[in-house]
Amino acid sequence: MPGAVEAVLVGAGNRGARVYGAYALANPDQLRFVGVVDPDPERRASFAASHGIPTERQFRAWEDLAARAPLVPTAFNATLDGTHRASTLALLAAGYDLLLEKPIATRPEDVLEVAQAAERHGRMLQISHVLRYAPFFKTIYDLVRAGDLGDIVSIDWRENLVYWHYAHSFVRGNWSNATRTAPMLLTKCCHDLDLLVWMLGPRCERIASHGEQRHFTSSKVGPEVPARCTDGCPYAEQCLYYAPRLYLARLAEDPHNFTVNAITLDHTEQGVLRALESGPYGRCVYRCDNDVVDHQAVLMHFGSGQAVTLTMQGASYVEGRTVRIDGVRATLLANEARNEICVIEHGTGAQRDVEIPNARGGHGGGDWGLIEAFLSAVRGERDGLRTSARESVESHLMAFAAEEARISGQTVTMDEFRASVQQRVAA
After folding, report:
1. For 302-323, what is each residue's pLDDT tens digit?
2. Does the chain have fewer CB atoms within 10 Å around its N or its C terminus?
């Protein structure tokens, strides 16, 4: 197909099939998937059928793809977090330019190793920091960098997760246990840290943090509560997290909702209920093996003197970040859920509502914006890229440093933390 970048999709789950695959189907003149890798035969077959991929280009494991000559020069790596290091190193060595889902890896030394490997092999590696491409956050960035607020004094940044999303992804789901994936701040908030680095510059100097998993523990319920919602919970009617009600409501809203897609490919009421009877998403939220925090506050000191707080919490009534940025001349207030940004002048008190460009695609337009920038870069036009793997390393290291600060109760000096990671990689 003339002009279309041909690529292999590695991981045909929610991000792979429903974001990258959906973009390709909607824009066949821009992107065409010619191979697919996924260990789940149903998801692999479904993606292959949608994209016309022949049997010989369907693979069960990324190792099978990496062991042969590249099918095409480009791949999208949308595997689960725990496989990012090994799969990315292998695909880079095999000769692929990559768009990699965040996070880069689940240990700080692995993050640095992957970025260095891309440089060593001379391959392009883009990390899916999609919010740099979302018009909402690009507008905030432009206001900050243009000096509309004056010198920045402080930033209050909140990542508010709606209660059912937190329970789905971080109690029952793939990102619930840090030993299997990574700390909450990395799996959910590396976008936020990346945006702060983008706006303020890369030199965060010190980090302190506090947070814990306080609510979703077995101590909150008695022995009468079963391990699964479908096993006759006596509190089904009043529990916010009762799985059949929660997921059937998502199904009614949108059969292709990301929560439903994670549970089953059978988007019927019977299919959802069957999946809840046996799969992880039917478990009682108080009987899971989750250990990531349900709230966390991070205090950062940046090189130009700005004090920045980042708060993550999973008990919101609505999904969306809220932002307050105070400069010496004006204050910016932003609400992602309402798609609103205003600037208030200090001297006059005048309030200006800022127009935000229209967005296409998920993550407020960031998904499609990132894909289009990556495809342009593959064609040799790199002006649209707003980040790099090397830049992404910094926000990842900040997340790991914040987790160290949370666990130790001590402030972490970033120069010392960066040096210790570099030493471990070099050892």
Report:
1. 988 899 999 999 999 999 999 9
2. C
